[in-house]
Every structure is written in C-alpha cells, then in structure tokens.
Amino acid sequence: MPEAEAGHAAARAALAGNPSDGYGGAVLAVTIDGLGARARIREAPVEPVALVEATVARLAREHAPACAGCPVELVTTIPLSVGLGGSSAIVIATLRALCARHAVELEPVALAELALAVEVEDLGIAAGPQDRIAQAFGGLTFMDFAARRYERLDPGRLPPLLIAWLVAGAAHSGVVHDDLRARFERGEPAVLSSLRTLARAAHDARTALLVGDHEALGRAIDTSFDARAAMLELDPAHVELIEVARDAGASANYAGSGGAIVCACANNDQRLAVSEALRRIGCGVLTQDP
C-alpha cells in the first residue's frame, strides 16, 4: 500500500495548563516523536477496534460514504490509559489514512473537532479538546480555548524533556473528567480557582518560551501540577513520579490525566539523573530533545 494511504499521530504531553482545556482555559502541549499510532488501510478484514470502527463510520457519514466498512489496521506504541493521548492518536491516525485514500482534505482544527466528536458523541468518552488539537497541529502548540486561538511554536525553544509513565499505572481518564465536570458545574470554588491558575500557567509558559526563560517555563510546569493537586484527589502512585522527578531537580507535570508525567530539565546531565531515578521506581522513560 502506498505510504500516502497510511496515517500517523504522535503521543501528546501537556506541559502547562491541563486540564483547563475543557473549561475555556489554555494549554501548552508537545507531541512526542518516539511514541505514536499508525493506521493503514487494508483490503482484507482486520481485527476490529472500537475506536477505529467509530472513526470509519463517522467519516463515512460526514465526508466519504465510500469508506464505510473500510478495514483499517492499527499499530500503536503509545502506552494506553496513562495520559499520553493514546486513544485520540488512534482516531487521528485513522482519519488521516482514510482522508488520504478518499481525497478528503481537513484542516487541523476540523480534523481535531471530528476526532473529538468520534470519542465524545459516538463512544461516550469524557474528553477535552487539547489532545486532538495538539496532535492535529503536531510539534509544540499553544492553545487558548477562550479565544479559540491555536499557535504553533518552535520546539527548539524547549529545554531537554523527559516523558515517564508508570507501566502498572493505567487508568481510564473518564473517571477524572466526569467528576471534575460535575464539580465545575456546581461552581466549587477550589475547582474554579484552580482552573484559572491553570490557564494563567499556560500563558506564562508561552511567554517564557518566547523570551527564552527556561526557569519561568519550569515554574509554569510546576504550577500546573500544583493547581491540579489543589482541586483533585490524585493517585499517590502517580504523585510519586512527580516527587521523584522534582527531587532529582526537574520541573514536572502530569502529561495528561495521570500515570505519565513530563519533565523539563536544565541540561542533559540532570535529565539523565531524573531518568535513572524514575526507572528505579518502575517507570518507562523516553527522552525528547529540542
């Protein structure tokens, strides 16, 4: 099959602002080159995957009737249910493969919105928009959801990054999102205050990147985790990842809903120390250079 009929989407790590995206906030996120989902169209039947089947059906209804029932083979290297955007990557990769086959052109925002509709409307998954926007744009993206403004930034401005995930720490993100939504709708002061702090942290992170201030970026990353911890009851096993990374000198935040973290390091020596510390407590680790 020609490569044009394959679709790929990388994992995503939110650096600052998450999970304010579902509440008119802001997020700075980066895609992770070493982890991704790849979808390929096949002529013979393949093992069914609910996310893939729902994606095929949605695109058939809205854009390409000819793709109905199209067999799509999926391979993913993203650890699932640890907050790295694994499910959204599957949907984005499948959409890209189908669009290539059926000559459907979708701009990044339209691609992201379609992917979100598959998960939220068709499969009943509680999710916010930032995963799909980040994966549709690729690279480093600042997302201001209040203004509906999405900005590609130069990933070369980032310090050395490290992604770590607890191999035994998988948990469905819907539990977190459902409870937070209910508390937000009740107007709980702790939730409203933390969401405002998260949005400011994302804006601060963007500013820090643009002026080359890695220390300020680190503060925004740390603030994001602290604001999350102020409004949510967090799994102690996941919190330990943050504590270990910070003890080794890094700034750290949940990459998504829990189970994986992203660390910003001052230099490669510090990143090596952080990596070794996290491996000792059973983490999978991946480094990403600017």
**Main structural class:** alpha+beta
Sketch the topology as an H/E string, one letter per element. EEHEHHHEEEHHHHEEHE
Shape: globular
Total helical segments: 9
Q: For the terminal residues, how far apart are their CA atoms?
A: 33 Å
Helix content: 40-55%
Radius of gyration: 18 Å
Poorly predicted regions = none
- Number of DSSP E strands: 9
Strand content: 15-25%
Mean pLDDT: 94
Largest sheet: 5 strands, antiparallel
Assembly type:
single chain
Structural notes for this entry:
This protein has helices at 50-62, 86-102, 108-122, 130-137, 174-185, 189-211, 214-231, 236-247, 268-280; strands spanning 6-16, 26-41, 72-76, 140-144, 149-153, 161-166, 251-254, 260-264, 283-288. Strand 7 and strand 8 form a beta hairpin. The chain is globular, with a radius of gyration of 18 Å. The chain contains nine helices and nine strands. Helix 1 (50-62) packs across helix 2, helix 1 (50-62) packs across helix 3 and helix 6 runs antiparallel to helix 7. The strands form two sheets. Strands 1, 2, 3, 4 and 5 form a five-stranded antiparallel β-sheet that branches. Strands 7-8-6-9 form a four-stranded antiparallel β-sheet. 45% of the residues lie in helices and 22% in strands. It has 290 residues and is α+β, with helices and mostly antiparallel strands.
